[in-house]
Hints:
Blueprint: H1 2-13, H2 18-33, E1 44-49, E2 56-61, E3 69-72, E4 83-85, E5 91-93, E6 122-126, E7 133-137, E8 145-146, E9 154-157, E10 170-174
Antiparallel strand pairs: 1-4, 1-10, 2-3, 3-9, 4-5, 6-7, 8-9
Helix pairs in contact: 1-2
Amino acid sequence: NLATSLANANTALSSNSLEVVLNATTALQAAINNLELILPEKGKFYRFKHPTADAYMLSDVYSGNAKYLAMGALESNKVSSVFYYGEDGTLLSYANGRYLSDAGSSSSDWTCLAVGTKGNAATFGKGSAVGRVGFYVGSASNRAYYSGNANDGYVNAGGSFGSNAGYDWVVEEVTYLPVAMNTTYGYATLCS
Length: 192
């Protein structure tokens, strides 16, 4: 297991033997490769983060193209960065109550669906690196959500996840929900 391999690797480093270090490294890499990917669980809230940039997928529309979702830094537990993974497999924006759309073709609108329009289930799978996840919505497995535009501030879709780091996401569970404060009037409203 990983803990044993890590302990053996630490011991090997102090041995000053190249052969012992190489054997421990091989065992450690094998343990890492066999780690089970923990995928999102239905009925929970999540954020989708770019693996190397401080940028999250937001349910806001990108200002440079009305067909793209925005990406941005997580400022004060930003409401638009939270998505609910429903029991039916859909991804619902916590901020606007709209489902994430399919990314069925290169001309698709990759933002959230119109209010009242039911979304399709999301499919999650292993990304291109350990601990990273890729996903698509609906049946278009060749149109995965693309995080590679983080520096440009938007999310779009295309290609397949699993072999291209641009389709990788780090999925973070949200354990408490943000409440947006109306800055003009200085209050927030809660309802259930």
